[in-house]
Structure formats: C-alpha cells, structure tokens
Amino acid sequence: MTTGHLSLHSLPPLSPRVILKAPLPKHNSTSGARRRIITPPCIVCSNRGQSQSQSRSRSRSRSPDDYHATLKALNSKGRTPRKSLGQHYMLNNDINEQLASAANVEEGDVVLEIGPGTGSLTNVLINSGAIVLAIEKDPHMAAIVSERFASTDRLKVLKEDCVKCHIRSHMLSFLGSIKSLNHSKSRYAKVVSNIPFNISTDVVKLLLPMGDIFSEVVLLLQEETAVRFVESSLRTSEYRPINIFVNFYSDPEYKLKVPRTYFFPQPNVSDFCPIYADKYFQRRQCIFFSWNKL
Question: For binding S-adenosyl-L-methionine, which residues are annotated in this chain's numbering (predicted)?
C-alpha cells in the first residue's frame, strides 16, 4: 500500500486576507475512489502574471513554517495528517509567536511541548532561547522534528503517548539534567503546545496538578472545550466534574481567538485562549487558543 503525496495546490491560500474569504473544503467521494480534499490554490503559486524577480522576492520572504514548508516536511516522510491522532498543523507563524509570548518564554527556559508535529512552534521556542522537551506519539512526525533540529542541543524528542507516559518523571529528569549543565537556573518548566485536540481534556487533567513543576502553561484548544472549562458554572447545563477539577487547581480565563483556516487540514470547530493561575503551588498561567469559525 502506497501513501499518496500531498499536492501543493491541496493547501489553503497563503494570505490571511484570502483565508478569511476562502470557501470550506469540498469533499468529493465516489464508490471505489479515495476521498480527497479540494481547497483553493496557494496564491503565491497562482500569480502566473508576476515577474520572475517578484517571484524570487516572494520566495525569499516566505516563513520557514508556511504552507510550502509544511507540505515539504510531510512529503519527506510520505505522510498525511492523521485524523485518529487529531493532527492539525499550524500554518501561521504569528500564532506560534503569540503562544510563546503568552508564556513569557525567554533565554534558558525549559519548555514542554506536546505534539510538535513538523516543528513550527518548536522552532519559535528554540529561537526564543528555550530548551525544549517534545513528546510526540507519531514516530514519523518525531523523526521529522528530530531531523529538523539535529544541529541543536536545545531539543529532546520522546516518542511516546503523552497521556500514557509519566510526564512528571520525564520532566524532573529533564530539569535535573539541564541544571547539572548550568543551562537553566529556573526551578520550574513551562508548557507551550498546540496539542492534538482529541486529547485536550486528558492533557489538562495531567498538567493542572503539576504546579510544583510548571510555572506557566499555554495550550491551543477547541473553543467549545475552552468555553466549557472557563465559563461554565453551577447554574449552567454545561457544568461538569471537569469544571470542579479545573477551578480547584486554577483561575481560568480565555483571551484569543484563532481562525481555523490557519490549520492544515482545517478543523470543523472554533478556537480561543484562557489563562490559568495555580492557587496552591507556584503561580501558573495556562492559555488555550481556539479556532474561530470564520
């Protein structure tokens, strides 16, 4: 069985202005034929009338984590996003910058990233001076991000399921090794992740009780999930046991919405950002960015 490569023109458009007006992907399926996603072509590649000098200038100005780089990284391993793993890759590097900024990531910080994917957020964290421990369940994506940052000693990749592995022991060991090398003076680590959305509740349950390890937590979540964590109260029908858990360990609030068109493939839900402050251990912030149905 062979894995088909993604076509350049199967990606969303490059400009955010075009993204907001782009139609939703159309799904065509016939008996005996594979289902494929049709989306508008990349506006960089569709500008056939532009001069070669303009084309070269546009190429030089591309972000190292734009649509083309994501496509190239996936094709290098013959991969397509796996729905079963909740894989949606961020295509707007400005959002990655905001995630890192929300956690106040700076030189020498130790950061846990769950689900690094092709390494777009990882790149921002490393460029900010952080030392990153990345946990990736998909071995193919773990290989991609490991190869991309093979020349730096600021990244360690664990090929494990973050829900099943012992995050506490991994982090304590990682913090100990970093301190022994005098690479970090901080006693605490931070979490900055665009996590797979099908495990968001599980990840929150794992991280919130670890206020003795993490000083700040920034996560990208579905809007429905974040609203449920932040706005539900005893007087609403959406109130669940998870709300008791979240409010016991933190004071949550959300801040930022992110268009779903900034992801590949586009999810079917929306996004925003809450902040958690730990009540019992070191002060901790946890920010959830979520998709906006634009």
Answer: 88, 90, 115, 136, 161, 194
pLDDT computed for residue 64 by the predictor: 56
> Is 27 annotated for ligand binding?
no
pLDDT for 160 beyond 50: yes
Q: What is the mean pLDDT of residues 256-282?
A: 61
CB atoms within 10 A of CB 191: 27
Residue range 112-146, pLDDT digits in tens = 999 998 898 999 999 999 999 999 998 888 999 99
| Contact (Cβ atoms closer than 8 angstroms) between residue 88 and residue 140 | no
Say whether 271 counts as a known binding-site residue.
Answer: no
Query: What are residue 90's DSSP bridge partners?
Result: 263
Of 210, 220, 245, which is closest to residue 96 (Cα–Cα)? 220
Q: Report d(CA 278, CA 78) in Å as an integer.
A: 42
Span 253-259, average pLDDT = 75
Residue percentage of the chain with pLDDT more than 90? 22
194 annotated to a ligand binding site: yes
Domain ranges within the chain, ordered by starting residue: 8-83, 89-292
CB of 291 closer than 8 Å to CB of 271:
yes
Strand pairing partners for 110?
A: 131
Burial class (CB in 10 A: 0-12, 13-18, 19+), 260: buried
Contacts (Cβ under 8 Å, ≥6 apart) of 32:
none
Residue 166 annotated as binding site: no
Residue 90 labelled as part of a binding site = yes
Report the CATH fold assignment for 89-292.
Rossmann fold (3.40.50)
